[in-house]
User: Which sequence fits this backbone?
């Protein structure tokens, strides 16, 4: 419903910020990673958002990147994971490490996260493992890899981050590897298909 907000930072706290947009101050819960990249009060910023509707409340969560927002929403899709646990998971670990742990089924690593016991860690792997391998694994790849560079090139061509990384992941999963140019051409062919 509310996918992103751009506005002026009024103030930031330990786990939230107030963003003024069109004369309205929105309270957004956020991770330390997002709060760390905010400009000082009065500065302008654009954040990706996730609106969570409960019986008794509406809560808005803000993220510095679309990937972090999408990962948050993927976590919410797991049985037993609410916004508090999802935000805690994102706050506790580096996204690349979380993605790697889920993709590899590393239950022990996941159990080190706040609010995640053995059963929840196993459920995370079961319910998110395939999705993470398909949609997010490109974000965990080192910056110097051909896959990461090809995804960056797609973003530079105007594709959003999720589409770019999904196309590269599907290209690699389809058996294509090699230089950046080869991956980029194959991904562009894949994206051109209706």
Assistant:
């Amino acid at each position: 419903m509310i996918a992103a907000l751009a506005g002026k930072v009024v103030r930031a706290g330990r786990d939230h910020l107030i963003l003024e947009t069109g004369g309205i101050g929105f309270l957004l819960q956020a991770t330390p990673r997002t709060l760390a990249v905010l400009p000082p009060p009065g500065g302008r910023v654009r954040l990706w958002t996730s609106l969570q509707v409960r019986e008794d409340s509406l809560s808005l969560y803000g993220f510095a990147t679309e990937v972090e927002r999408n990962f948050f929403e993927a976590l919410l899709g797991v049985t037993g994971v609410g916004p508090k646990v999802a935000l805690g998971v994102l706050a506790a670990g580096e996204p690349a490490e979380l993605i790697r742990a889920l993709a590899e089924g590393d239950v022990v690593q996941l159990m080190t996260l706040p609010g995640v016991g053995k059963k929840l860690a196993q459920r995370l792997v079961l319910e998110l493992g395939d999705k993470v391998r398909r949609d997010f694994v490109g974000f965990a790849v080192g910056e110097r890899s051909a896959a990461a560079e090809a995804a960056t090139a797609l973003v530079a061509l105007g594709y959003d981050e999720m589409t770019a990384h999904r196309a590269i992941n599907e290209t690699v999963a389809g058996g294509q590897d090699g230089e950046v140019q080869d991956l980029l051409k194959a991904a562009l062919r894949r994206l051109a298909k209706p």
